[in-house]
Write a structure and sequence with these properties.
Elements (H helix, E strand, L loop, with lengths): L1 H14 L4 H4 L8 H27 L6 H29 L1
Helix pairs in contact: 1-3, 1-4, 3-4
Length: 94
């Protein structure tokens, strides 16, 4: 039962970063302080979901197909989040 719950959580984490497309349609989400906070929260979520999936896969020993797919996708999100955060930090220092 624990394996199924963790697999569902990891799978749901795949779709949450795409909600930024809905949020960014609001005018308030395009203004400077709200935009940076929103993007920063999504970056942190993407990185944490990648870490969560890796921990569930390795230490939780959950190795079903859905977990494998969600781990790969969440790891790609985590890598993209690290790249975007490094780019944001670099552009803020210039």
């Amino acid at each position: 039962m624990k394996n199924k719950i963790l697999t569902v959580i990891s799978t749901v984490m795949i779709f949450i970063p795409w909600t930024i497309l809905i949020i960014r349609q609001n005018e308030w989400a395009l203004k400077s302080p709200a935009a940076e906070i929103t993007i920063g929260c999504y970056i942190a979520f993407m990185i944490l979901s990648g870490i969560f999936s890796i921990i569930c896969y390795t230490k939780g020993n959950i190795k079903n197909k859905l977990m494998q797919v969600s781990m790969v996708i969440n790891c790609i999100y985590a890598f993209a989040g690290l790249i975007i955060s490094a780019w944001s930090i670099y552009s803020a220092m210039i």
